[in-house]
Target: Divalent metal cation transporter
Amino acid sequence: MSEIQSTSSSTEINQSKFHSIVTKHKTGWKRRLLIIWALMGPGFIAAMADNDAGGVISYAVTGAQFGIGLFIPLVICLAPLTFTIQEMSMRLCAVTQEGFSRLALRRYGKFWGYYHISTLAFENLLTLITEFIGMTAGLILLGIPLLPSTIICLVLIVAFVVFTGYWTKERIALFVGLLNVVFLVVAGMTHPSMAAIGHAFSAWNVPYLLKGSVIWYVIATIGNAIAPWMIFFQGSGTIDKGVTAKELRFSRIDTAIGCIIQVIVAAGIILCGAALFATYKILATHAHLTSSVHLITV
Model:
């Protein structure tokens, strides 16, 4: 009972913060900035979380192996699909004020309700493993040994989950999401050819020798764009933020901004990987020649 009351009071605090910012009697650009600051949240975070450790590695490796011919147009074309799914989840939960898993349990019965919860828990475990790999690898690059890096990551995650409320979590996550601009800076430093990018949209070509393996990278890219967990997070975050049916317009803007920025950053990461495309081909050719020479000498 006390847990329910604490959850309810936390939700009321978040609602009061959200609505107090939205309903402040200011005019002009100050009011617009306040509304943008208030509405940014679940939609933006859910979209930008696609560029997590696993997503960044996937995009970079895809660019290094296939160049920009297919995958930059693909990730941009996936933006409407991502928006549609996230907007549907947001709308369902804002109107009903119930989370996606509870709606599935109530509407379709225990089997599908527990099926969603169990598969989500399993997928989140795998996702958490990839996040730990990414964070630990980053700290190792900074010179911190493996074990201390893992402990630091664990302490940060536990502290983030246990000692902060939803509003604080949301603001921190927004700040981390905005750090994705670094990938755009690095992509610009590679001096990409605008002509080559334009040709990628008209040709959608894949190197002939790589067509056999491209399907797995396409599946990974699509799966990264419509990860199942974001449906649950978008709905629950909408309720925790205090969004109701009256604020659907604000939440749609939040979701649209997140989806647009996410694909732009993803394209930038692919460009970063594509800068290594020629190097990758040289290394692959060198490895092939080396293995051939080794077979001949043996």
Remarks:
- Residues 110-141 form the longest helix (32 residues).
